[in-house]
Amino acid sequence: MKRLPTTPTELPYEPLRYIRHLGMHVLAEPGEGAVASARLEHREDLLNRAGFIQGGVLVTLMDLAGGVAAARLAETEFVATADMATHFVAPAIEGPFVAHAYLIRAGRRQVVLRIEVIDEGADRVVTTSTATFVRLEGR
Fold first, then answer.
1. What angle do CA 107, 117, 71 make, to 5 degrees?
2. Tally of CA atoms within 13 A in the half-sphere of 125 that contains its CB
3. What span, in angstroms and rounded, lies between the C-alpha atoms of 119 and 92?
4. Which terminus has fewer CB within 10 Å in the chain: N or C?
5. What are the start-end ranges of the H helices in the chain?
6. Is the preceding peptide bond at 96 cis, omega within 30 degrees of 0?
7. pLDDT score of 122
8. Element (H or E) spanning 88, and its range?
9. Cα 58–59–61 angle (5° rounding)?
10. 33 — phi, psi (to 5°)?
11. Percentage of the chain exceeding pLDDT 90
């Protein structure tokens, strides 16, 4: 799989503190065909007892990439995750990990995305998701 530049992008808002704490950032250049991509380096403090990156951390990475993609597509700063069906298909071992969000459908009020996390060190998909984001009005 092709590796992406690791340059973070500037967001039009300050990322949530826990996103910074986890060391996640949105990439300036999304992967091929993706609307947005986000990256996480491998860290020992994010491992579960089996030695893999904890699943909730991967879901957070997908939510970050998906939220940025949905906001771009909805042309708004405020979106919320309405639904996310996630499948863990391989252990996340090596890293770095990159989540790519791809458009399935964009409507007036909601955006549906396919999101996948790639373990770049292992060169494989580790997590996939279908997610729906809704535009928040009046914010």
1. 30
2. 12
3. 6
4. C
5. 17-22, 55-74
6. yes
7. 96
8. strand 79-88
9. 65
10. 80, -10
11. 77
What is the reported pLDDT for 2? Answer: 46
Which pTM value belongs to this model? 0.89
Checking if the pLDDT of 38 tops 80, the result is yes
d(CA 50, CA 62): 21
* The pLDDT of residue 137: 78
Per-residue pLDDT reduced to its tens digit, 101-133? 999 999 989 999 999 999 999 999 999 999 999
Task: Give the range among 19-33, 58-72, 117-131 with minimum mean pLDDT.
Answer: 19-33
The rounded distance, in Å, linking the Cα atoms of 35 and 104 is: 11
Q: In what helix (H) or strand (E) does residue 82 lie, and over which residues does it extend? A: strand 79-88
DSSP 108-136: SSEEEEEEEEEETTTTEEEEEEEEEEEEP
| Pairing state between β 25-26 and 124-135 | unpaired
**Whole-angstrom distance, CA of residue 125 vs CA of residue 123:** 7
Cα–Cα distance for residue pair 72/6, rounded to 1 Å: 20
User: How many angstroms separate the most distant Cα atoms in the chain?
Assistant: 44
pLDDT band at 21 (very low <50, low <70, confident <90, very high): confident
Amino acid, res. 4: L
